[in-house]
Amino acid sequence: MIRVLIADDEELIRGALVALLSLEPDIEVVADVSDGRAAVAAATTHRPDVVLLDLEMPELDGIDAAREIRSVTACKTIIVTRHARPGTLKRALTAQASGFVPKSTPASTLAAIIRSVESGERYIDAQLATAALTETESPLTARETDVLRLTGEGLATKQIARALGVAHGTARNHLSSAMAKLHASSRVAAAATAHDNGWI
C-alpha cells in the first residue's frame, strides 16, 4: 500500500483528491492538510511514501515545503500547480521534488504518477518541462533574490536587513538594484515580478 499525504489550501480540490485517490486499491491517503507548514508537520508525523503539494499555499509554498520535508524525511514529493511560472520547475528540482504536474492531471493519471514516483522514478509533465526550457534566466544576484523573497513575505526593509545580517543601507541598495533590473516602481512590485517568473 502506498501511503500518501495531500496538501492543498483549496478545500474542494483537496477533498476531491482524497476521495478519488482513496478509490485506488493500492493507495491510502493517511492525512490531508491546508498549508505548507502543516504539510511538513504531517509528513514528519505520518511518514507517508509520497506527499502531494500544491505549489501555492499559505505559510510555505509547495516547493519550500518539499525542501523541508526532504530534509527531515525520506518521503518523495510531487508538486501540483495550476500555473507553471518560468523558474518554478528549476526550483522544484533543486528542492528534490520527484514530480511536477499540472492540476488538470486526471486522477487516474495522477495515481499512476504516484506509483511511478514511489518506485523511485521522476515524473515531469512534458508541457511544464517545455516551458522551463524556454524560460528567461533570472537577472538577480543571490542577495537581490534574498531581499525580494523577504519582501514577498511582508518584511520591512529594516527587518530584511536584520534577517540577512546586513546594514539597513545595504539592504536598501540591493532592493533598489533589483527594482531597476526588473523595471519595477516599488520593492513590492519587484517581488511580485520575481515571484511570477519563478525567481523567488
Characterize the structure shown.
This protein is of the alpha/beta class and 200 residues long. It has two domains: 2-133, Response regulator (Rossmann fold); 142-196, Arc Repressor Mutant, subunit A (Orthogonal Bundle). The chain has helices spanning 11-22, 36-46, 62-72, 88-94, 107-118, 126-133, 142-152, 157-164, 168-181, 187-196; strands at 2-7, 27-33, 50-54, 76-81, 99-102, 123-124. Strands 2-1-3-4-5-6 form a six-stranded parallel beta sheet, sandwiched between helices. α2 (36-46) runs parallel beside α3 and α8 crosses α9 (168-181).
Overall domain count:
2
Class from helix and strand fractions: alpha/beta
Low-pLDDT segments, ≥5 res: none
Beta strand %: 15-25%
CATH class of the largest domain: Alpha Beta
- The sequence of SSEs as H and E is EHEHEHEHEHEHHHHH
The name of the CATH architecture of the largest domain is 3-Layer(aba) Sandwich
Q: What's the total number of strands?
A: 6
Can you count the helices? 10
Instruction: Report strand order across the widest sheet.
Output: 2-1-3-4-5-6
C-alpha end-to-end distance: 36 Å
For the largest beta-sheet, the strand count, sense and barrel status come to: 6 strands, parallel
Concise account of the structure shown:
This protein is an alpha/beta fold and 200 residues long.
